[in-house]
ABC transporter domain-containing protein (Sphagnum troendelagicum), 232 residues
Amino acid sequence: MKKIGNLNFLLLPFDKGEIPVLKDCSLRIPEGQLWMLLGPNGCGKSTILKAMAGLLRPNQGHMYVAGPRSFVFQNPDHQVVMPTVEVDVAFGLGRFNLPLDEVLTRVHNALEAVGMDEYAQRPIQILSGGQKQRVAIAGALAEASRVLLLDELTTFLDETDQMGVLNAVRKVVGGADPVTALWVTHRLEELDYADGAIYMENGRVVLSGTVEDVKQYIQKQQDQMHNNGGFR
Ligand SMILES: Nc1ncnc2c1ncn2[C@@H]1O[C@H](COP(=O)(O)OP(=O)(O)OP(=O)(O)O)[C@@H](O)[C@H]1O
């Protein structure tokens, strides 16, 4: 078993039904960093993320993730469901049986961390998609999650909202209390916010390294595709 900072796991061959989706996947993300996970449609990015979050159970192999973790969905309407911002962030704390003072402190700190404190009393339905994503991330932080698993958060967002979410994640990852994040994306411009990147193909991790390494790999793939008339 591998131990890697606060995000420790080893994912061995993993079948979904009869079809193996992830094959010998093992990746490493240093604690307190934001890494991006990229790859063609259907290569297994969301499956890895969901397995790490405990939303999917590998039916072969072993997996180990250290530290409390939270999954943030592509569509915030599937996650941010309470009437106001403050109540939504507090919602997940119900199961911890905390004193009210502590709930309020955690909610305030989490909203501040994602730049949404001044929206605490606002109704959820007036928020933009990116603001809702930041509320979802605040919910994870309030629950003291140390690992954020972020699945294509910006797909439905305009540029302003996209920047708001990227900056919020960057800020919490670089904060005093180390948070580690793995962010699935198709948007190459988002790579510039990352500390490192991983590229997957057909259920395998084919590259894990610097942002520059992954950019070069993608460029090479695109050049090859271009030279082959659009097909690989
Ligand atoms: N519930 C499921 N049952 C069976 N196969 C599934 C299931 N969910 C996904 N798959 C298959 O697993 C493979 C990986 O899917 P996954 O959603 O992880 O890919 P992805 O890289 O996140 O793709 P995208 O970029 O399109 O979101 C695909 O072949 C997909 O069809």
Notes: The first strand starts at residue 14 and ends at 16. The pocket of adenosine-5'-triphosphate is lined by residues 16-17, 21, 39, 41-47 (CB under 6 Å). The chain is about 35% helix and 15% strand.
